[in-house]
Specification:
heterodimer; A: mainly alpha; 80% helix; B: mainly alpha; 434 Repressor (Amino-terminal Domain); two-stranded antiparallel sheet; globular
Chain lengths: 148, 70
């Protein structure tokens, strides 16, 4: 496994952890599910710190004589950027359309409750940002595993 | 247009050159070992520059290292 692939794994783990903690903090654990919040919190807490530790170790053990990234890594990263950017654009256009429709339907429609309020827009944009990162790293890992 | 495939003799040439390892070849041409592995397995097509560097590492012309078949 190359260093770039390891960094992709840690980055995707880090992004998943951040999304989980953010959603748990903002929305709380769903009532219709059994309460496994403590269990998942421990798991994602460990994932978060393991990801940080691995990235630190890789950063400290960077070799000056060997390349950390070559043309194949750049090509795979370009694929990741492509799909992440596509998702980001679709998601942002969707949010803009929702905000626009919320204004039209006024304060009475369910659309306003979901995306009309500024704090919900903030939450949605925050999650879109990290989902975009997950998509980028996921695409990269797919190509690394496929031995691209 | 028919699609072709690129084949290479890198593995054979490595063993002919004092059993050169993938890492040694990677260090010579400035890429990672995983890239050399992917090229040998024909799962990644190198850039023209990299192909020339690999051929130069074996002191062979490009056509003896890489072949293109339709």
């Amino acid at each position: 496994m190359s260093k770039q692939e390891i960094l992709s794994w840690t980055s995707i783990g880090f992004s998943f952890s951040v999304v989980f903690f953010y959603v748990l903090f903002v929305f709380g654990w769903p009532d219709f599910l059994p309460d496994y919040s403590d269990h998942f919190t421990k798991i994602f807490f460990n994932v978060f710190w393991i990801a940080m530790a691995v990235e630190l170790i890789i950063g400290l053990t960077e070799s000056k004589n060997r390349p950390n990234k070559d043309e194949r890594d750049d090509k795979i990263e370009a694929y990741g950027h492509k799909y992440a950017y596509s998702f980001l654009m679709v998601a942002i256009v969707f949010m803009l359309a929702q905000i626009f429709l919320s204004r039209i339907f006024g304060h009475e429609g369910s659309q306003y409750v979901l995306f009309g309020q500024p704090n919900m827009i903030f939450h949605a944009l925050f999650l879109i940002l990290f989902t975009s990162s997950i998509i980028k790293r996921g695409t990269m890992l797919y190509h690394y595993r496929k031995s691209f | 247009m028919e699609e072709g495939s690129i084949h290479n003799q890198i593995r054979k040439l490595r063993f002919m050159h004092g059993e050169m390892t993938q890492q040694e070849l990677a260090d010579k041409v400035g890429v990672t070992r995983q890239t050399i592995n992917a090229i040998e397995a024909a799962k990644y097509s190198p850039s023209l520059e990299l192909a020339f560097k690999i051929a130069h590492a074996f002191d062979k012309p490009l056509e003896e290292v890489f072949t293109y078949e339709i």
